[in-house]
């Protein structure tokens, strides 16, 4: 007689308003950098898969764009992606920021999942930044909401509480197959991951509207020649003034973006990289569905 299959696996989406640390948590749970992170809101623009391989279980995490009220087409499509995960997952991790507590933006997120029966775990993130008594008050508030199966405090950045969270998640997974082979931690394409590395550097090095106006497209990735890979990527912005800022005085900003991105890409690919960056203007691309599909891979 066959042994009953006791392997557990399932999909878990990471949901919350922008900047609460969803992508940082994904990277920490997967124990590898998959998603771009930054202190700018709306860093993540797509669903990003991260697979956690455990003995007897597999957690397939889906990092999502921060949910927020918006009128811009790109942002509407981003939020739609996050909401669409509700019907596809076995569990939802709802993240809030321990310092900020429940802001109206978090209530907006909770309202968006009012009608989904999927179990929800509240993850109170950034506990490294708060005093214990404040955390207790937040716990009480969260308890009163009575929509969460569990409430867990973590610091995604400091890797505190993340192992406990992993165990907790597994308890909510159904029996199922190993969806992904052991050596696979994401189903994102290599080009997408490289684009996100480059965009992350733009987010970290530029300010105001500039970081949000940028999309990165890898145009060309050659085969290694003498241990060197050439990668051409274009940074699209919406205005000539933004292009100027990205290039910087005498090309200094673009050089910095390129250098920092190249170092990370070389680490990722394990080869030397010649990274050539171009900057182009595509006016109002964030309000054009076709261009958004092409630049950000978002669907209707
Ligand atoms: N101190 C502290 N900072 C954190 C923690 N987790 C994340 N951060 C920081 O919070 C900022 C936002 O992190 P992200 O992971 O990009 O946030 P996100 O929720 O994915 O944001 P969006 O993609 O814009 O929705 C970054 O500067 C992180 O370094 C934490 O546990 N403690
Ligand atoms: Mg993110």
What secondary-structure arrangement, pairings included, does this model have?
Elements lengths: L7 E8 L6 H9 L17 E7 L2 E7 L9 H12 L6 E7 L6 H9 L7 E6 L6 H14 L4 E4 L8 H9 L19 H16 L4 H4 L1 E7 L6 E10 L2 H8 L4 H18 L2 E10 L7 H8 L4
Parallel strand pairs: 1-3, 1-4, 4-5, 5-6, 8-9
Antiparallel strand pairs: 2-3, 7-8
The site of magnesium ion has 5 residues, from helix 1.
Could you describe the 3D structure shown?
- Helices cover 36% and strands 22% of the residues.
- The chain has 300 residues and is an alpha/beta fold.
- It has 2 domains: 8-170, P-loop containing nucleotide triphosphate hydrolases (Rossmann fold), CATH 3.40.50.300; 190-296, GMP Synthetase, Chain A, domain 3 (2-Layer Sandwich).
- The strands form 2 sheets. Strands 2-3-1-4-5-6 form a 6-stranded mixed β-sheet, with helices on both faces. A 3-stranded mixed β-sheet has the order 7-8-9.
- Helix 6 (190-205) runs antiparallel to helix 9.
- The longest helix has 18 residues, at 252-269.
- The mean pLDDT is 96.
- It binds guanosine-5'-triphosphate and magnesium ion (MG).
- Guanosine-5'-triphosphate (GTP) is lined by residues 16, 18-24, 37-39, 41-44, 65-66, 125-126, 128-129, 155-157.
Tags for this model:
alpha/beta; Rossmann fold; GMP Synthetase, Chain A, domain 3; 22% strand; binds guanosine-5'-triphosphate; binds magnesium ion
């Amino acid at each position: 007689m066959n042994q009953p299959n006791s392997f557990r696996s399932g999909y878990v989406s990471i949901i919350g308003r922008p900047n609460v640390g969803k992508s940082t948590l994904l990277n920490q749970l997967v124990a590898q950098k998959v998603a771009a992170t930054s202190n700018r809101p709306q860093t993540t623009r797509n669903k990003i898969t991260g697979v956690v391989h455990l003995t007897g279980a597999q957690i397939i995490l889906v990092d999502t764009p921060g949910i927020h009220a918006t009128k811009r087409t790109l942002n509407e499509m981003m939020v739609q992606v996050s909401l669409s995960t509700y019907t596809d997952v076995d569990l939802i991790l709802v993240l809030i920021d321990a310092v900020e507590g429940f802001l109206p933006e978090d209530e907006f997120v909770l309202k968006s999942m009012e009608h989904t029966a999927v179990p929800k775990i509240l993850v109170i993130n950034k506990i490294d930044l708060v005093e214990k008594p404040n955390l207790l008050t937040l716990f009480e508030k969260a308890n009163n909401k009575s929509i969460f199966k569990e409430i867990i405090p973590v610091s995604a950045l400091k890797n505190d509480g993340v192992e406990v969270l992993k165990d907790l998640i597994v308890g909510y997974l159904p029996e199922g197959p190993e969806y992904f082979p052991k050596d696979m931690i994401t189903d994102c394409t290599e080009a997408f991951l490289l684009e996100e590395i480059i965009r992350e550097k733009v987010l970290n090095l530029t300010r105001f509207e500039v970081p949000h106006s940028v999309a990165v497209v890898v145009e060309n990735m050659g085969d290694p020649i003498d241990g060197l890979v050439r990668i051409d990527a274009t940074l699209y912005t919406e205005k000539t003034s933004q292009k100027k800022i990205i290039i910087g005085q005498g090309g200094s900003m673009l050089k910095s973006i390129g250098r920092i991105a190249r170092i990370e890409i070389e680490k990722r690919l394990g080869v030397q990289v010649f990274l050539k960056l171009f900057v182009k203007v595509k006016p109002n691309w964030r309000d054009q569905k076709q261009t958004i599909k092409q630049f950000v891979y978002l669907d209707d």
